[in-house]
Amino acid sequence: MTVNLAQKYSSKVDERFKLASLTASIVNYDYDWTGVDTVKVYSVETADLSNYTKSGSQRYGTPGELSDSLQSLTLSQDKAFTFTIDKAYELEQEGIKSAGAALRRQLDEVVIPEIDTYRISKLISGAKTTASATITKTNAYEQFLVAMETLSNDKVPIIGRVALVSPSFYKFLKLDDTFIKNSDLGQEVLFNGQVGKIDGVPVIVAPSSYLTTGVNFVITHPSALVAPVKLNEYKIHMNPPGISGSLVEGRIIHDAFVLSNKKAAIYVNKTTAAA
Known about the structure:
Blueprint: E1 38-44, E2 68-74, E3 77-86, H1 87-92, H2 99-125, E4 129-133, H3 140-153, E5 162-165, H4 167-175, H5 177-182, E6 194-198, E7 201-205, E8 215-220, E9 225-226, E10 229-238, E11 245-254, E12 257-258, E13 267-271
């Protein structure tokens, strides 16, 4: 005799962990790409100081034409995705493949991490200063202070600085006796992923997969990285021609650029490469 055991499928989906955008606080949107795919940004030079002469016709010195440079910022990232959900599956699987929920999952798990990772890679590659160190629980805080000192010497505003740190660096920092005695992370949280502040600087712990290999931490200022999103379009088509069910489509045009005169606002600390 054959016995068929009853089966039951839960309507609850075993969702994967996800993160909200970690880069919203480290970029700016100061330039407008509406109607174009390239924006050109001028940088204007300054004149040197000289001694004033109390005689002659050029008492202020010999005038020269003030020079400038031009940086072209062309959008290169035009990404898209699409998938279908057959109406029968949506009905027979207790609604676990709802188009709206599936689209939200696609944004949380694919689109947002893609944009964050891309922006961080541009930030790291565009840094003026990249230092190497082997981080331990005895030097983590010192390395952070060295970065802060470098940024201050480059006249980067203290207010507005943000740190992206790896989980490993964060661990060593918490174990560093010098840090424990002289500072604390505080508990004021303003940004996604923020775990507190170090000496007034918001600290965001980013997964190692978001950072270039070997990066311990990055300290930056939002003025350094321009991150335009020209198009951000997501659509759910119900019963389009040829499909009984939902067709989901999405497209995003974006990019990230480090401004030429703001490179000094980015400091990267990487693990010393093995010999």
